[in-house]
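Work Package 3 (structural annotation) set out to generate three-dimensional models for the target panel prioritized at the project kickoff. During this period the team completed the workflow that converts sequence records into discrete structure tokens, so that structures can be stored uniformly alongside our sequence database. As a representative example, we reproduce one entry of 97 residues exactly as it appears in the project archive.
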Amino acid sequence: METLNFPGGECELTIEVQQCKPNSLFLTTGDLAEVLPQMTVMFSSDEDNNCLINLQYHSRNPDLSEKSDIIIALKEDLTIRAQTGIARLIQIMESKS
């Protein structure tokens, strides 16, 4: 379960893991009816063996565009969450090395 913050209040959704390939891919989908969210995290390494993380959020609803009010609200909420999560992950990984 995840709680999202919208201008009109909070909304809960259930998130399910659809695919997980260790060190490569983590893909989830959510049940938020109007949006049908999907999160894709891809892991790779560069020539110096640094871990690269590509995080993307998508809507599985073909009727929504980037200019939809709900997409704009989600983008604001998820940008803050992603930045906080990545900063925390970096902190954890750097403390272990």
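Strands lie at 2-6, 9-13, 15-21, 25-30, 37-45, 51-59.
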